[in-house]
Amino acid sequence: MPILKLIIFLALSLEFCFFTTPFVKASATNVPILMYHYVANNPNPKDKARDSLSVSPDKFDSQMDYLSKNGFTPITLDTLYGIFNKQVSSPAKPVVLTFDDGYIDFYTIVYPILRKYNFHGVSFIPTGLIGGSYYMNWNQIKEIQASGLVTFEAHTVGHVNLPSLSYKDALKQMQDSKNVLSAQTGYPVNFIAYPYGTTNSSIQAAARAGGFAGGLGTWFGKSTGGGMNMPRIKVSGFWSIKEFASRL
Ligand SMILES: [Zn+2]
């Protein structure tokens, strides 16, 4: 009976709308924060630990290409905070691109690719290691900062395991990195990524006392509302573009 089929079709369509509409609306409060470390070919393939932290430049470029062609907008953590607190409206598909540790490949590989797509990135800097082998120096960081494409956020001074320190020392590690970084870049440093993702309630209280608006861990998930231990999605260098897309 055609009329019955039409009714069923309309009922299914409506159901589809009811189920999908809240999901689309929820995207602004269900934001993937992608986590990268090295974006470089592994100079030593026997170094499996480095393998697990590396994405090749070609793969990274194709991931950015995917985001660009599929309407994603990389935003800053300050914008994400504003979205969660209903101070700013969200783009249709927000995503945050984060890069830990301030390695030199951020300057030589990541930054040119971010420029190519006009994408915003967030770089977490252990301030005491800057200028050392394998790391960017302050001139490179300032040059990137001047582009307005990247914000630099805290990652302690010495890339320390914060819960192993006293409250006072942990607070100092976080505050000192914030102060040095904002003095060097002229940008307010409102977020910290805990090195190794290790944190607890005392560290998070110290981060709050130290003036941070948010903290980032390394546990897997999308961010649903900010806070002092936001999850991230560690991007694997072994993912196909389809696997990458399925995590967004
Ligand atoms: Zn780190």
Describe the structure.
- There is one protein chain.
- The protein is of the alpha/beta class.
- It has one domain: TIM Barrel, CATH 3.20.20.
- It has helices at 2-26, 48-51, 57-69, 77-84, 104-117, 138-147, 167-185, 201-209, 241-246; strands spanning 33-36, 38-39, 54-55, 72-74, 93-100, 121-125, 150-154, 191-193, 214-220, 230-234.
- The strands form two sheets. Strands 1, 4, 5, 6, 7, 8, 9 and 10 form an eight-stranded parallel β-sheet that branches.
- It binds zinc ion.
- Zinc ion binds at residues 100-101, 155, 159, 195.
Summarize the structure.
The protein is α/β, with parallel strands linked by helices and 248 residues long. Helices cover 44% and strands 18% of the residues. The chain has one domain: Glycoside hydrolase/deacetylase (TIM Barrel).
**CA-atom Rg in angstroms:** 20 Å
**SS class:** alpha/beta
Low-confidence stretches: 6-26
Please report the first level of CATH classification, the CATH class: Alpha Beta
Number of helices: 9
What is the H/E string? Answer: HEEHEHEHEHEHEHEHEEH
Q: And the CATH topology?
A: TIM Barrel
Mean pLDDT: 89
Query: What would the principal axes of the Cα set say about the shape?
Result: globular
Specify the CATH architecture: Alpha-Beta Barrel
Assign the CATH superfamily.
Glycoside hydrolase/deacetylase
Proportion of strand residues: 15-25%
The small molecules bound here are: zinc ion
- Taken together, the total number of domains comes to 1
**Helix content class:** 40-55%
Could you describe the largest sheet, including whether it forms a barrel?
Answer: 8 strands, parallel
